[in-house]
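Most newcomers find our protein records easier to grasp once they have seen one. Read left to right, the backbone structure tokens trace the chain's path through space. Nothing more is needed to start thinking about how sequence determines fold. An example says more than a description, so a record of this kind follows:
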Amino acid sequence: STPPTVWCSWYYYGDGFTQKECEENLTALEQRPLPIDVFQIDECWDLHWGDWSANPDWPDLASIADRIRKLGMQPGIWTCPVLAESRSRTRYAHPEWILRDDQGGPITFPMNSMQNLVLDPTIPEVGDFIAGIYQNLRALGYTYFKLDFMRAVAEPGGVFADPTCNRADAFRMALEAVRRGAGEDAY
């Protein structure tokens, strides 16, 4: 099938997009419709990478998804499921989930002036955690998912908890966890 036409908040707002601005854009699209299949909220809604809860600028992600659907578009949202900010609760609650090098040091992925930690998708609990991110977003009404920085799993030097896995295997396991949580009908 034809890939969807996507409106993405990043290309105008960057990470400064708020629910108020989202509502204003949806009102504008209601008044002057465009041939858009997906309305996607990019990196701006989350509190910390790795925790995947909404920040105070997004008090009601579910109502936004519902409004997007009522306008005839598919609700979309951004995530980077294999990264955890160093300040995230996930990093502190589950240090055993962090991908390590052969000396036991963490594999990091630089982005947004931070050295983000990489989660090891060969650990079954990490797979369950990743699946849970998308189950929760599905419950809020989102069915289109932009997956960013997935390449972090393939950073050189990582020693996976499952020694039979290489970087391609780990990448595949992360994607399978996303699909398991998002459902077969998600994009």
About this structure: Strands lie at 6-8, 38-41, 74-79, 83-84, 108-111, 114-118, 144-147.
